[in-house]
Amino acid sequence: MILVTGGAGFIGGNFVLDWLKEPKAEGIVNLDKLTYAGNLATLDSVRNDPRHVFVQGDIGDHALVSRLLKEHQPRAIINFAAESHVDRSIHGPAEFVQTNIDGTFNLLECGRAYWNDLDEVKKAAFRFHHVSTDEVYGSLSASDPAFTETNPYEPNSPYSASKAASDHLVRAWFHTYGFPVLTSNCSNNYGPYHFPEKLIPLVILNALNGKPLPIYGDGQQVRDWLFVSDHCSAIREVLAKGKLGETYNIGGWNEKANIDVVKTICQILDGLRPRADGKSYAEQITFVKDRLGHDRRYAIDASKIARELDWKPKETFDSGIQKTVQWYLDNPVWVEGVVSGSYRDWLQKQYN
Ligand code: NAD
Ligand code: DAU
């Protein structure tokens, strides 16, 4: 078995589905608290798969995590569970500290106690993979080189600060206790099952619903976009071949300004689902108040993982965004399930 945390969320959910597509794959214990971002509908297709054991619970629950490790004897823990949305961290940072820092601390401690008791062969094979973000490196100017694994940590938001803190704990557990950790720092993901508080799914759904497409500030902030299944394949490579204690940057080599991402989505929708009045969805673009402390540019140099683990992304932005828009058009039932009351409350709070 492997223990996956946060496997009902966007990336964790995609990881579970991709992993179980392989008929000979080991089973997964999936521990997820089912916050607003956790969605069991994402896991519908593996509902009856005996290799998938779903457990609702908190990564910060010491008794629960210890019991799951003892019962299922996983050979690895992959930690996706987190509060992940920067805007929410600005409105209410407490949960970010609790889950991202305290929760990771608890997983490390439970994992270390479990690992200490394993026999030598299992001990040598065990891995703790921590899934982190490029945001820990801070913000780049237009001319700065992309982030490498040796960039200093300069987190700017409550979210990125909490992720940076968790990365430091993971690093220290390796250095101090020899706990066998791996860390990956990834750029912006997009693709199926993405919760529509994030830019790409928000724009797709707002466009289709005739609502404004909100662009923060001048829309010239740059992100490096990675199709989610590419992130999942990179994590599998790091888990299988990564060097203990190392960090690996994962990115798509797809730097785009936000305004260009939104215009591309509008163009695709103009082709696939034209507006009744014949005008472009781009007419719905609206510039709104900027995010507090908004980081200007992120860019990932993913050459270490290419060189050492022979991984590179399969999707370009053009192919990935086309698939993503099509997925949202093809999956109205999942979308309807997600657009719940609590999500509508969030939109009201954030965009007034
Ligand atoms: P998400 O918000 O979609 O999902 C997070 C999942 O974690 C949810 O299912 C939620 O219910 C669960 N969760 C939250 N708190 C929990 C707790 N205390 N105990 C157990 N489960 C809990 O997030 P995501 O976008 O899938 O991101 C997954 C991971 O990848 C996060 O660690 C995030 O920091 C990192 N990451 C995300 C991106 C991105 O672009 N989305 C990029 C780089 C790194
Ligand atoms: O870089 C990796 C990070 O990417 C992950 O660690 C985070 O978990 C993930 O949420 C994501 O963070 P961002 O803040 O970059 O993603 P978001 O989709 O919220 O915003 C992308 C860009 O679009 C950002 O510059 C803010 C802008 N934006 C976002 C929203 C929701 C808008 O202009 N309008 C919006 O309505």
From TrEMBL:
UniProt-recorded Gene Ontology molecular function terms: dTDP-glucose 4,6-dehydratase activity
EC number: 4.2.1.46
Span of domain NAD(P)-binding: 3-324
EC category: lyase
GO biological process, one term: nucleotide-sugar metabolic process
CDD domains xref list: dTDP_GD_SDR_e
InterPro entries, sorted: dTDP_Gluc_deHydtase, NAD(P)-bd_dom, NAD(P)-bd_dom_sf
Cofactor(s) the record lists: NAD(+)
Glycoprotein found in the keyword field: no
Domain of life: Bacteria
Record family assignment: Belongs to the NAD(P)-dependent epimerase/dehydratase family. dTDP-glucose dehydratase subfamily.
NCBIfam families: dTDP_gluc_dehyt (TIGR01181)
Name of the protein described by the UniProt record: dTDP-glucose 4,6-dehydratase
Organism field: Polynucleobacter sp. UK-FUSCHL-C3
